[in-house]
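Q: A reviewer asked whether we had any structural model of the full assembly, not just the individual parts. We don't, so I'm hoping you can provide one. Inputs are below.
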Amino acid sequence: MRAVDIIMKKRGNPTAPAGSSLSREEIAFLISGYVQGEIPDYQISAWLMSVYFNGMNFVETGYLTDVMLTSGSVIDLSGLTGPFVDKHSTGGVGDKISLPLAPIVAAAGVCVPMMSGRALGHTGGTLDKLESITGYKTALSVREFRNILSKTGFAMTGQTKEIVPADRLLYALRDVTGTVESVPLITASILSKKVAEGADALVFDVKCGSGAFMKNLADAQKLADSLAGTGKAMGKKVVALITAMDEPLGYKIGNFLEIEESMDVLEGHGPQDVTELTLLCGAWMTVLAHKASSVDEGKDLCRQAIHSGKAMELFLENVRLQGGDVPRLLADRESRRSRHTTTIRAEQTGAISSIDAFTTGLAGVYLGVGRNKTDEQVCPDAGIILKYKKGDRVNAGDVIMEVYGKDEACLDPAVHLLQKAISISSSVPDKTPLILKEITAL
Amino acid sequence: MRAVDIIMKKRGNPTAPAGSSLSREEIAFLISGYVQGEIPDYQISAWLMSVYFNGMNFVETGYLTDVMLTSGSVIDLSGLTGPFVDKHSTGGVGDKISLPLAPIVAAAGVCVPMMSGRALGHTGGTLDKLESITGYKTALSVREFRNILSKTGFAMTGQTKEIVPADRLLYALRDVTGTVESVPLITASILSKKVAEGADALVFDVKCGSGAFMKNLADAQKLADSLAGTGKAMGKKVVALITAMDEPLGYKIGNFLEIEESMDVLEGHGPQDVTELTLLCGAWMTVLAHKASSVDEGKDLCRQAIHSGKAMELFLENVRLQGGDVPRLLADRESRRSRHTTTIRAEQTGAISSIDAFTTGLAGVYLGVGRNKTDEQVCPDAGIILKYKKGDRVNAGDVIMEVYGKDEACLDPAVHLLQKAISISSSVPDKTPLILKEITAL
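A: Here is a predicted structure for the entire assembly that you could use as a starting point for your response.
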């Protein structure tokens, strides 16, 4: 077997039409060879570009996922009571769904081993949000992860170095070779990590819109289909939701600010959009875990978990178990704010026709909510509080946003962006749905 | 400027449609950066693959050619009388056109600075053929090259290391990354070397058929158009001929054997196909050099160069100047043969319907005419003499080929291939044209 022949098979050659399917052995030869330093990066990047152009079917993508997965260790959840169900979002602005979701679903009796990521670019990261809770530790050992999982039914950790090293190598190469935007490569990157953490079933929240990686429904649909199809090809149960990400989710964008809003959801008085999406994801997770026989029944289970107080109880117990200072969290709630602050007021009277998620997310990076490079620090207290959302009527001069920065200097560029993010029109815009599509592969 | 942005521009991204044209600066940034070790090979291979898929227009290909060209030194022909005209063939079997062509065109008053290549795979190489002349030296210094050029109007040399180093680097990378078969990349590779040797005008012989790199007319046409269009975009005059390479050219395939057949052409009694193609290439070269005002007039000039004996005189003078042993060449002619020999006889009575060029060329590699790897030696005396060609009637038992090998062991596998190469049918096949198309960019 030669790498160049595999590249040319995917690329197309006189004996194989362009985009020919690769076998498990061929994909393993390339990827395992790359991880082991036997196949040079210049061959892998040429192959990645041929995949960018000619794609991979779900079976091939499953092979790639599987080969990547086996490049490292897999979390051993044996002895714990499954099935293990997780949710993954492709990333958005104000997207704190994981935070209330995990304890709600755990309270409904589902085991949720959750591995999350960090903020990058305009999108936020669950780990950064959790770490805004004083003392909260997101780098758990497998032993700690299992222990907390067994006690509260969910645990929140970052990816360890042992998990899917192939993904880190490949992602770094894709990043500099123009091969990031490939649906099968994105699919394998996401799925390999989720399967490595031990999930048997998965709910994907594929964001679609200005603040998402996928800007339009067609692209989001391709990724959702690929995640569902590849997951199924690998013997996993997958539900892929396509949800709107044109405006931020909820009213709060920031690290600690999003913890606060998540606690509101856990108490049953969260924002309508965050609650709706949390309940839908939660319902599907209970269905996938055989705790509910329909989405409606699943939603009822999740509502009970909230109204009984059980979900909040598990959340606080998890905070304690992961090292967080619960009394301080409760004291900080609604009061801990950066002192570098300003407001944005409506420039005219009318109705808010849009608050652009992407621009708002970029402003968040300036403020310290997120980061441009993986080695940058984030600020726990920075963020944006929206006082109004799309469709709300405002009068000129009304405060539309409260803005909190990591320092004084960052406020000006952030405000400049946020002013651009807000559009006010004379008429009230049409309501747009939050849930755009549900794709199931059960 | 970042390499990844240039890759994504060619690949296509939200702000640039797939295959967007790159500027001279962008191409120079990539290629000069690569040659200088500043841009890593994994970015270049991803870019090469994006060019494979999305192509380059003639202007871009001209930029690439120009940037490659300036990666090394350019032969200085100042002081010599131009215009300088050369011919390049994409490679075939029995293709010895350069050998009689250069002295014929020189005899017609055109200065021909010729840089040639070596045999590789099933195709032969002019340098290997010349070196079969005892003493003939093909590695000339620029000073020697200029000196011989000024005396005989043509000189034959190999590419020096100083000429287009970018091409060697890029070709080695393309070879292992599945990016060889790209018309703009092939074009830039060929053109950069030809322009570096000082040519003002060029005749390309784009071979088409089983024994050629381009197997069908559509592919050959793309390459011919690209060579002509890119050459024109660079201010060069270019004629691209598409010629048949389904059966070997002439009756002799080998190194010294092809020297002999070339001398026959120089004496006016060469094979019809070799003579026809030599005269057509020669005629175009005289037109490009303003020595003739039409192809017909150019052919007449070339015929005169043959019949006056001037072309042969220049050939022998060149052999002498390049270190060759002229008396020995004349003594060896028609007598120097490998002692490892056999024949191939007709298995049935009928008409030869084809002698497959590719299979014959592969047999030649076994015999020692060519090589599979660039560091292998060739055998000057090995080769094949065809006694019949396509369309000729044969009786069962007639000798169709004389076969000469570098050793005894190579004869069997070569014969096995050659038997496969020959097809005999009951009816005489239709005549097929040698010259398939002429593309001019003047």
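A: Points you may want to mention in the reply: DSSP finds 17 helices and 13 strands in chain A. The longest strand of chain A covers residues 201-208.
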